[in-house]
Amino acid sequence: MGLDDSRHALNRILELTVLLNDDMARDLARRGLTGSRAHLIWELRDGSPRTQNGLAKALGVSPRTITGLVDGLVARGFVTREPHPHDRRAALVTFTKKGERASRALERDHIALAHKIFDDMPATTFRGFTRGLDEVIARLRETLATKGEHRAR
Amino acid sequence: MGLDDSRHALNRILELTVLLNDDMARDLARRGLTGSRAHLIWELRDGSPRTQNGLAKALGVSPRTITGLVDGLVARGFVTREPHPHDRRAALVTFTKKGERASRALERDHIALAHKIFDDMPATTFRGFTRGLDEVIARLRETLATKGEHRAR
DNA sequence: AGCTCATAGTGAGCTAGACTCATAATATTG
DNA sequence: CAATATTATGAGTCTAGCTCACTATGAGCT
User: Fold this and answer.
1) The pLDDT value given to residue B44
2) What CATH architecture does domain A34-96 belong to?
3) Percent of chain A predicted with pLDDT > 90
């Protein structure tokens, strides 16, 4: 395939990332959330009381950043910090009612988006897309891994 | 197609956006650039002397933000502010030698990435992917337009 | 028991990117 | 010429990352 084709395809992918980002950011804003805060809630969704350290590892972000995100979510009433039963150092980040509602709303939004994108797509197109997508992701993973080796030296 | 399939596909797309972001951010950091600053350089690439206002519209960002981005690029020697020949209010953001080199490097990186992702992908897979991708983008555009109407009311 | 080391969280201070609002300087137009 | 529009920036805010230093506590080893 020609180079121009692959460049064009890459540009389309980048266009997609921008569109997705905009769409999701707007939905989140409507619910009083930012991307990072929503990400935290999303993580909290499976296994609600979590320590901040656990969240830091799950989100791939420093513990200090979690402190800030949790501060924001506490201020807006989505979560509370509860004492850990066995470890007085740790705080358990716990959903409030509002937080649980928001968590379910995020899930609904996610499903609705998947619907909107894929529902009336012909099955063959869908399969062709996902097949290619898997390959693209695999190539990207390779690339990242290779560069990671360099850095590790 | 089942709901689970579309949800899974959406998750894969999100995974892709994260991978792409990481990969590009790392390349940019290697060149002393951030995503936003690179974006500005990318825009400057086609039609080098540009006013900040023009850049603001091109990047879809407030003029004040451009001031900040240009400040950063000037401090690092990628661009200069030159006086506009006919309008003493406006500054023309202009590449330095270093900026031009960086601009070409970004282009090379872009091409290399497209290569890495698509080069050894079977043509049928590639076509299937781009076809689906076009549809996905179209659906997203629709969604955004619909919501935009709401906001416009 | 006591000492050392590790872990959980936060304060302080930095960079970066985005916004608004107000303002200065300059263009444009009636 | 006077009113209005445009270009850029200062001031101040918010979010989201980071590191480094520090407190409090937990765990393990003599």
Assistant:
1) 97
2) Orthogonal Bundle (1.10)
3) 86
